[in-house]
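Students often ask why we bother predicting the structure of a whole assembly rather than each chain alone. The short answer is interfaces. A chain on its own may look different once its partners are present, and contacts between molecules only exist in the joint model. In this exercise we take two input lines together and write out one structure for the complete complex. Read the inputs first and try to guess which parts will touch.
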Amino acid sequence: MTQHVKTVAAIGVGVIGGGWIARFLLNGLDVAVYDPAPGAEAAVRQMIANAERAYRKLTLAPLPEPGRLRFATSIAEAVADADYIQESVPERLDLKHRVLAEIAAAARPGTPIGSSTSGFKPSELQQGLPTATSVFVAHPFNPVYLLPLVEIVASPANDRAVIDRAKAFLGTLGMKPLELRKEIEAHIADRLLEAVWRESLWLVKDDIATTEEIDDAIRFGFGLRWAQMGLFETYRIAGGAAGMRHFLAQFGPALQWPWTKLTDVPELDAALVDRIASQSDAQSGAYSIGDLERIRDDNLVAILQSLKANRWGAGLIVQEHEARLYDKAHAGVATAAIEPGQPLQLHTSRVREDWADYNGHMTESRYLQVFGDATDAFLRFIGLDAAYLATGASVYTVETHLRHLSEAKVGVGLKIATRLLGHDAKRIRIAHEMYSSEDDTLLATAEHMLLHVDTTLARASPLGPGLTTRLDAIAESQARMSLPDWAGSAIRALDRPQSILA
Amino acid sequence: MTQHVKTVAAIGVGVIGGGWIARFLLNGLDVAVYDPAPGAEAAVRQMIANAERAYRKLTLAPLPEPGRLRFATSIAEAVADADYIQESVPERLDLKHRVLAEIAAAARPGTPIGSSTSGFKPSELQQGLPTATSVFVAHPFNPVYLLPLVEIVASPANDRAVIDRAKAFLGTLGMKPLELRKEIEAHIADRLLEAVWRESLWLVKDDIATTEEIDDAIRFGFGLRWAQMGLFETYRIAGGAAGMRHFLAQFGPALQWPWTKLTDVPELDAALVDRIASQSDAQSGAYSIGDLERIRDDNLVAILQSLKANRWGAGLIVQEHEARLYDKAHAGVATAAIEPGQPLQLHTSRVREDWADYNGHMTESRYLQVFGDATDAFLRFIGLDAAYLATGASVYTVETHLRHLSEAKVGVGLKIATRLLGHDAKRIRIAHEMYSSEDDTLLATAEHMLLHVDTTLARASPLGPGLTTRLDAIAESQARMSLPDWAGSAIRALDRPQSILA
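Now the answer. The structure tokens for the assembled complex follow.
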């Protein structure tokens, strides 16, 4: 069923609605949008551009073609043929009731209707709706296109099948649906955030710390821990081998101490608002909101990628999402046709910002990384898949010759043309050419000698028959192509008196 | 003055004390430890081993030789000749008073005495001390050897100069000293943590979520944000162009809603303790505490490295610390002697875990990264420094020939031997040999052709006279060395019928 979600409706385009729309589109879904606010369309297009910039850096896996964006003139028109509907209008219950009633009246029966509400319970949202079985809370976190968490809250009135379908669908977007066991105002995360927010207001009001100092207390300390483990798992470690009971025995008493001021709610009077606003200006005023968004997104992308490398937490969600994307791509590679007299086109990439040297060009070792990925694609193409590796055989690079001909700037698309220069019982000689996909400039060339090895004996071994057959076919198809003039070339000596050749 | 801190005393070796000791030692400081607990020494050595494993992965910059660890038989003996003293005994005021009195009596006058207390105010710690001017709060966060934050809290009784010296010293350890404007119980971070902790206890008690679900609500959502920006800067973005005032106007009212239960303190009765402990077992029981520590540390290292690449937040602290370490290393390079008839030894490295392929060997592109770093060291050696780059000239690699001879496993130390094969007006030809620093196995070789370029015109230009002079000297010193047999070699064709050479 989740496979069938092709069209999504998004009602309301604030920061959250816009983030939802971007995540939908970037995952190849068509999105119908409704928001009566003037300038809503321009705002959405800007948000999508910002989101895409970051989202495309999140993974090198090939993303699907973005879906189509359509602006509807009414809620009914937007939701009529939607397979999933997300409501993100302002946090006023009367408004939500009006909008949800219109949605429910026009939507196909059984279509999941998620609300982005950060505070209301589903039973509150469902009040007065003719049919409430499909309306539930799907509360995401800003930026919606990068943060995986989406809190799912249902009421007893909900149809279980609809909720399960919605969760499965959101999972395919690279999100982490977290369903609450019972409905409660503000769900889980916002309760924790509100607690920190209240305490922080007191710290500012009492002049213990400025907004910047409070932020520093978070981002140089426990904030780093919470990006990868939460409160309880972190404290479990602190408890040591004695475990959680020991920790509770140690830490519990502190709860009785008169530390926090949370028993009162600080009044947000003009003086406190002024103080916070001016401290925030002093802290962040040097950056525009656009700057801060880009900085935040680049940091989140980098953090998610680092956790992905460690196969942990939010990084695992990205990895699973990536695996789905790669599966499609590899399926393409495996079935790619061999065009007689043509080099193979098996790999494309893009120069990521974190690949740049101080000149803003792709740094040296990344060229080899891209060529290495192209070699992997070639090896998959000739049948070196996970099953083959599992037999204890693999192919290693034993020799590489690189030529850097032109610089690749950040953001440039790369496409690799691959040729088989020869192969024998144990060796494969290939050549890659790296082109800019913008103007077809030849950026670099690579020549590799690959050796088939028995990984258990760690010594050279004969290629499997399946691989050889495939290689023969490629060699045959490229037999009439002339050898690249640079193939087999070496780095030449410099004839200069003080050269050691003198 | 901070330059003169050579010896540190650490009193108390729990998780926090042990973390302090590791950070001190790994930054080259001698540490005198006192803790009467049986098995304290064994526990400390284990903690140091764990910490060193992670800390050495935090940066590729050369760390100083670890300091000497000494176990004293009394507080007096431990602190007598210390330049800085850190107290980390259990959180009981009477005990802290006893220990701090002993420390103050035996320490050299004016020696900073930091307390790791997470709850007490400095004025409380200072009660009854003959001299209180040097006793202050220096509250770190677990793991102390990785997290930069250390909260500094002084009382009116403190000597300002001592506090400033302590902050400067802690900064040289790669920490971020954050001083509170006023003393307050639990300082800043623990107040925020306590607020979250209290609310979380309610969520578990009321069965809204399990410990794992609460942790997920953190680490898949706002925890990722807080690793790089705090509460206020994040909300400033949410406020959009309208800024913080707009956000407060929007969000403020929610504070009046009856969301959190923070007005009460949940009683940690047996039932709640049982529930938390068993939920925590279900969540994390599959991992030992040691496993969790390694996972946490590897994640923190990866996150810190990703933020370093983005030059932001905690990553900036690491970068600054690294810069200090590199400065020393480069100073070494700049003054390294040219040994006649010997290759240059300008670069060493280590195979990091995140460099490994699925076989546990250094992945292909990392070889070129290490060779590239060695080339950078060589270029610094001949005078291509920041000042030279600032003139709009640089040196690019135009051609590379790599040979992979043996595999480098994770953790293996690498040393590079570099030879100048020749140079002319605009070009430099060099050869690197990569050896395992363990058994001197030759792992790989690299031959590079480098081209001197005018970066503004983006075209080849003559080497500066300073560089040429230095190159002549190196060429002279290596003139009698025979050319490596692999230098100038090319990848050979494979003579096989289906080779395209047929």
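Check your guess against this: Confidence is low (pLDDT under 50) at residues 496-502 of chain B.
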